[in-house]
Amino acid sequence: MLNTIEINNITSHQTHSKFKIHILKQIKLFLARKYNTINTQLAYKMLTMNYRTFTYLLFTVFSTIIFSDCKQKSPPVCALVYSDGSPEFNKTIDIATQMHDSGFAVKALHYLDSNFINNPPTNQLDVFHYYYFCFDYYNNHIESRNPQKAEIYSDSMLYVLEKNKLQNIYVKQYAQSIFSKGDALFNARRYTEAYKYFYEAKTIIKDNIDPCALADYSYRLGMVLYKQDRFLEAAFYFEESFNEFNACDLDFAIFYRRQELLDNIGLSFSKAGVSDSAMFYFNSALKYIKENYEKFPAKTTAFRDKANAVVIGNMAVVYGNMGEENKAIDLLQKSISINERKGFDPLDAQLNRLKLANIYYKHHISAGMRNELDLITKTNDSLPDQNVLLSLYDMKWKYYDMTKDVANAFTYLLKYHRLRDSIDVQMRTLRETDLNEQVKNMDKQYQISTLEKNNELKKTYLIIALLGAVMSAIIFLLVFNDWRKTQRNVRALTYLHNQVSSQKVELEHLLKRLEDTHKEKDRVLRAVAHDIRNPIAAISSLSDLLVAEDYNYSNEQMELLTYIKNSCTDALSLTKEILEAADPSKAEALVKEDTDIKRMFADYIQLLRFKAAEKQQNVNVQLPYEPTHAVINKDKIWRVISNLVNNAIKFSPQSSTIDVVVTRKNNELQLSIHDTGIGIPDSIKDKVFDMFTETKRLGTEGEKPFGLGLSISKQIIEAHNGKIWFESSADHGTTFFVTIPAEGA
After folding, report:
1. How far is CA 690 from CA 684, 700, 709, 710, 715, in A?
2. Which helix (H) or strand (E) holds 331?
3. Residue 722: band (very low, low, confident or very high) from pLDDT cuts 50, 70, 90
4. CA distance readout (Å), 127 to 140, 195, 605
């Protein structure tokens, strides 16, 4: 906390309106005279709030000051939750609690159900605590959250106390029942009803002078404001709740809630961008856990570790915002390693993995980002959460965008926007609800009811009514000002909408032109491929004629004629593949047959060696010793091998060696073609498999490329359910790898 001198420094250095500063000085002097202290966190928050929030909070402060002198003081009463039942039930519920704490929440509920059915309790508080345990299971555990069932158990808690007329005896339990009813309604998104129950519980607590239980009300208001993204106001209520818990005898539940509140305050400041305050409260939470956990020796270290893990995970975000990513990564990994254990907090671990993925994204570390996203995907199925799923979609589309996978990037971007719109619809009512206005209205109703019963409060009511009228006038002016701004915004949005519509029409025209261009390209490609078939077919026919005539050819001449014939056959196959690529709908079905791989190489490899001999290159082939068979289309697979070896010949220097290695690994046949040529530059590595790629390069002796071979090869391999990839560098050349499913001989 800041002292009085520090609040003066804050006041003198802020650039807020003179009206706010004047009011704050008056509050400061009043509080200093009345209580010899001042809540400077409240003053700082009031300085940084907008006018609407400022007026609401100012109203609350004055109301609190006025009522503080009207209430009689009495010692706080804070009964423990499970200490007032029968000894037998206390033992049973302690065992169930231990099972729950160890990560076996479902078994704990079954154990308690079994004992409740077999040994029905006669003590009504035992019944109440049984219902409370069931309510907690269905309201607070994400794996089993069911607002409808939670509401049924909260109604059962109220019924037990009201039926037996115990509500005036066990006030705290009665207030807890009403709070529980509000919690269930809030989780069911019935917000207006939930606020009424929260406020009803608050009035019961205030009427019975129980400041300990009042902390539960402040905590819930803080949670509502936090979900409304009103973080500074939420921090105020969390801090107020933390201080109100000072009135309670310290048990484990109070300890755990107070460390949670310190973490919530830090998280609120972190969300509001006040990093130094956030770090102060996070460190305070860690210190509080360390200093107080040993007071509960019956509890395992699991709760301590889980609580620490949540806090350091939140601290990591602040470090990341301050540019200290290494600290952030270290804390996130530490938090994840703790909360991924059984019985800990897997949802927090998922959220921290998303934070880690976001850091990797900012630094373009795609491998680390992918690893975190894969781990989240594996666990999210068993623990679905909308916020985790929304962030996961956001990270995934950014990952695929970073890795140039446009299709997947678009898919996940679409999923992200659809889920975000769905969540926005769900949260709209909550965000549009003005909690301070709700509280103010309920405060007025409560005050009116109280004043009707007690004439001594009429003067106070009149003052509050006047204040309310002034505040209403101010609010009316603010609403009117907001309305005027809204009208301007609507006009601006209409203009932008018209611009977007115009751009959409233009984009549709461009897409139509692109489609027409693509069709024209296919038409030209088909015409060229079709026209080139005739001269190649003529050469093939002539070679057949020469082979058929008996001219007493030498062996070398006969071999050359055979090579001409095979080359023509390959060229005709290539033109056929070009036609199929230009019009995939007319491609023939792939016919596969059992093929002896070693025999296939023996039949064809000499042709490739003859091609390599033109550059004094050597093609070195290594085949498995054992017979190796695969169910393939032999001609097309040889087309792939021929394309890859010809590329190696083309881009390798004179007198170099090209290694062709065939190996069998388990049920796969792997082929590698390695050269020591010029390699593939990084700038075109992601485009080499594109058809008609513009990244063509001349061979080492000026050979011209066509840009089809690798694209057709990829289509053939994928049609065989295989894979093709490469590794390349300027220093070590290029190695292409091909794997296809293999069948044993």
Report:
1. 10, 22, 10, 8, 11
2. helix 325-339
3. very high
4. 20, 26, 86
